[in-house]
DNA sequence: GTACGCTAAATGCACGTGCATTGAATGCGC
DNA sequence: GCGCATTCAATGCACGTGCATTTAGCGTAC
């Protein structure tokens, strides 16, 4: 890939990401009181069979530093959307479990999320 | 485009952007004492015929809020890499002009920038 | 058992960003 | 000329993030 093409690709990537993340952030915040990172956590938890993941697993799925993820989960916990539970087999670890209110909030926000993605990627 | 495919696209976009912006940020910071946004400003200025753009023009090229751009330019100015000049025709406007040290710093950093992009997009 | 290194998650801190506001300058209507 | 809405850039402030460190728990070697 010639150098200038790579730069063009990067700029296009930036542009798309900026547009979409801004659109998601504002739509989720305004309509559902959720930040993008918060929704992302809920969205991953819903996909899990047991609606429960370890911090470490979440960290691999979500592009956030370990500390940022820790605080994001803390915010969700404060709002009662997830709960933390100690890991029985390894007490250093923490399970993050989706609560019923969390599942409900996600169900409300999900259509917004999907719609914004479709609209923005199309536009 | 089916809904799940759009979500996959978004997640892939996020993943690529996170990987590339992190790689750029750390490489530019470590090797050239430049943040990604700072480099982006220099990179756009170099491409301009007169190495000089209005804040507003920069704002359209770079995906940064107006306030963030203002501060990014302020940091560059503090380091002597750009200078601000009042716009003669509209005294509300500000021209941002690349200085010689700025051009030199960009020339040093550019190969790093291009290489990281190529390597990361390929990987 | 104890000591050591390693890993998981939380926290102090500094920094960059966005939002809202401010201050200055322009252009339009009158 | 005089207002008045609009535009451009800068700034106060709050917030989310990353880095570095801390705290706790694990595993291995001895």
Automatic annotation (TrEMBL), chains A, B:
Residues 6-123 form the HTH marR-type domain. InterPro entries: HTH_MarR-typ, MarR/SlyA-like, Tscrpt_reg_MarR-type_CS, WH-like_DNA-bd_sf, WH_DNA-bd_sf. One of its GO terms (molecular function) is DNA-binding transcription factor activity. It comes from the Bacteria. One of its GO terms (biological process) is response to stress. The keyword Phosphoprotein does not apply. Keywords: DNA-binding, Transcription, Transcription regulation. This is MarR family transcriptional regulator. Pfam families: MarR_2. It comes from Catellatospora bangladeshensis.
């Amino acid at each position: 890939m010639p150098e200038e093409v790579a730069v063009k690709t990067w700029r296009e990537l930036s542009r798309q990401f900026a547009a979409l993340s801004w659109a998601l952030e504002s739509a989720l915040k305004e309509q559902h009181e959720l930040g993008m990172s918060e929704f992302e956590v809920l969205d991953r938890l819903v996909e899990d069979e047991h609606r429960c993941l370890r911090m470490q697993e979440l960290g691999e799925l979500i592009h956030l530093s370990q500390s940022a993820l820790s605080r994001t989960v803390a915010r969700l916990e404060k709002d009662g959307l997830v709960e933390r539970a100690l890991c029985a087999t390894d007490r250093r670890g923490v399970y993050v479990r989706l609560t019923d209110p969390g599942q409900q909030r996600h169900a409300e926000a999900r259509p917004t999320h999907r719609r914004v993605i479709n609209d923005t990627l199309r536009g």
